[in-house]
Design goal:
Helices cover about 50% and strands about 5% of the residues. The chain is mainly α.
Length: about 120
C-alpha cells in the first residue's frame, strides 16, 4: 500500500471512532475536532482548541427544579430556572386558572423521578 492510502485509512478510522463515541453527563463534544472531552476542560487535549462551551456555573439542579415546580410552579418559576422562558410566561398568564399549578405539580414529580443523566441531557446540554 502506498503511504497516501495508509494515511487515508487512518483518517477514515479516526472519523469512525469519533462518530461512535458516546458521552456522559459530565462530558461534551469538542467544537473543533468532535471528540469527547470533559466539560471542565478549557482546551481540547486532542486538537488544542479552546473549549468555548464549558458550562461551569451554568449547571441546573434537578432537585432545585423539582422543588420550584412543586412549590412555585403555578407561576412558572421552574420554567424560568430551566431557561424555558416562553413556557414560563404562559404559566404566568394563566396562573389565575390554577391549571399551571396542576401541570407544575405533575412536572415536579416527573423531575424527581427522572434520572440524572436524562435531566442533564435535556437541561444542561
Amino acid at each position: 500500500m502506498e503511504e497516501k492510502e495508509i494515511s487515508e485509512i487512518k483518517e477514515v478510522k479516526e472519523v469512525v471512532e469519533t462518530a461512535t463515541q458516546t458521552k456522559n453527563y459530565d462530558e461534551a463534544y469538542c467544537q473543533s475536532c468532535g471528540k469527547v472531552i470533559k466539560k471542565e476542560a478549557f482546551v481540547c487535549p486532542y486538537c488544542g482548541v479552546k473549549n468555548t462551551k464549558n458550562n461551569q456555573g451554568d449547571e441546573k439542579s434537578k432537585i432545585v427544579a423539582a422543588l420550584l415546580a412543586l412549590f412555585l410552579g403555578g407561576f412558572g418559576v421552574h420554567k424560568f430556572y430551566l431557561k424555558r422562558i416562553g413556557t414560563g410566561v404562559i404559566y404566568i398568564l394563566f396562573c389565575w386558572t390554577f391549571i399551571p399549578s396542576l401541570i407544575a405539580f405533575i412536572e415536579g414529580i416527573i423531575l424527581l423521578c427522572m434520572s440524572d443523566n436524562k435531566f442533564n441531557d435535556k437541561y444542561n446540554n
